[in-house]
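dumping this here before i forget
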Amino acid sequence: MDDTMVVALFRHGITEDNKRRVYLGWSDSSICKTEEQRISPYPNRFDHYYTSDLQRCIQTSHLLFPRVVPTLVPEFRELNFGDWERCTYEGLKGDMHYQRWLNNFEMTAPPNGEHLADFRSRIQVGWHKCMQQSTGNRIAIITHGGVIRSLLAEFAPEPKDFWDWKIPYGAGYELRFTKEHLRRGEKCISLQEVPSTEKGRGSQKRINY
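structure:
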């Protein structure tokens, strides 16, 4: 019996709001039309498929796994930016509250938005829900950049700051655990970049620890 579990974390495709570099949390936004040509079906099969319930993730899931109906997991939404939703740095840079958040985002929350500690707790609820429901050895999760960064900060063997993880749109990472490590909430045993999903491009890079 295989004693390992693979969890693949995919970031959604880019949206017009992403291109404008706005804070896009719980606001719904469709992916760009160009993503329909750029993102190819992912060749590997999984036993279970989960996605954030926001449209940009659902659309990306359909591009990556066109024959699959994923399970929607609201806990895998991006951070709620509250009053700063769809605002830009240029529009907010004169706000002292915003400057305090930039300088210490772990201790400060956007007005009417979500504190980072609550964000991480919410993600953990979704993570444990998926782990308890899944009976196979391979899981795919389509979600947001902040969610992936939070999970990598917790489970990746290589310590990095939250913002140091670079996750391209439509790509991500595969984490491989022993089932015992996963049960105990310990670090994964290997980390592999999900290859670029652009047609005809990309290769896998495995990072073992």
